[in-house]
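Forgive a beginner's question, but would it be possible to get any protein sequence you like and the tokens describing how it folds?
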Amino acid sequence: MGARFYVLDGVDGCGKSTQAKALCARLGEVRKCEPLHLREPGSTPAGERIREVILDAALALGPAPQALLLAAARRQTLDDLVRPAMEAGRDVVMERFHASTFAYQGIAGELGGEFVLEMLGTWAGDPRPDLVLLLDLPLERALARREGGDRFESRDARFQERVFEGYRRYAELVPSAVVVDAVGKVDEVTERIWKEVERAGL
């Protein structure tokens, strides 16, 4: 079986990082090869610089420039890290991908979901994820877990609600995306994720 590209996504505080580490561990055990664990934006030197700009709440930056910068960071990550890893037979597990840009800039930022998907597909569409796992945690619980005050975490409740709605809409539009209940103990959510991985035949 060839290398696979998995994405974990969802609102801030839903448990992406914890579950990405758990998925990497399980894949490593089952497939006898340690996956490449990445985050977006970030993972490359350019991506980390862009991440700093994107999250800086003190810097004026509208949804359209945000989306363009995110596409640039993602293209770099795909070219420099994802494709080489997969060509070498290594699975990739990434925290955040197109669903985040769709939800934050496309829906909450009002750029338009279809517009954002078309832009990302053109500029950052290959390799594409085999499976996108959207961690679904009630918004009030996710908000309670947050610690920082970056550009997005500091936005008002209505913005956060629109982000939450955006993820639900993404799941309806993108065949490779599945919603995973993120309520419960960490191990319980981990098992739900693994069941989806198995169900997808990956």
